Amino acid sequence: MARPLRSIQARARVARGWSLGFYIAGIAALGAGLLVGGIVAAATGSAAGLGVAAIIGATGVGTGGLGLWESRRFRRRAERLEHAVSEQRLYTLAETYGGVVRVVDVARDLRLMDSEAEELLDHLVDEVRVSMRVTDDGEIHYVFRELFDEAGPRVRIALGEAALPEETTEVRAEASDEPSL
Question: What Å distances lie between residue 95 and 1, 13, 106, 171, CA to CA?
Fold first, then answer.
């Protein structure tokens, strides 16, 4: 379990790095295009110079926009990967707690803020695999049904004809005059 988790974490870090790189490149291209276009327009002042300046500026804006778009795409990928890592860590934690966890358990053991832990748990609640249970004290428990079984092991019994209950006859003990031993 540790290797896939590390692999996902490494991929998330790489995606974050690409996101930052594209962001910096996008801002640089945007600024450079506008700056160079402005300098060309101011220096020439002719119609041809203004046309070249517009092309340079548009190229910079287009390239910068694409860089920012890719930055956003890589950031979202990194967030999805980090969320997958958190879910894997959460399932491992739930297994150690017997399938029932509280927000405070998740926050403490995964080193998250309470709000982050609650958001992560709430995201998993689907009432099929993970459900919420409120105790009489008002405490919320998140139950991972695949990891928790309060009734013990499940056994399936097939009832055949021989196993059906037959009519029972009631036998009453008659009172006798003799004392019981």
Answer: 13, 27, 12, 52
Domain range list for the chain: 1-82, 97-161
Nearest by Cα to 10 from 88, 78, 92, 73: 78
Fold assignment, 97-161: Arc Repressor Mutant, subunit A (1.10.10)
pLDDT in tens, 92-129: 888 888 889 998 988 888 888 888 888 888 888 887 78
pTM of the model: 0.58
Q: Is 138 left (phi over 0), alpha (psi -120 to 50) or beta?
A: left
Q: Which residues contact 95 (CB under 8 A, 6 or more apart)?
A: 144, 147
Q: What is the CA radius of gyration of the chain?
A: 34
Amino acid at 132: M
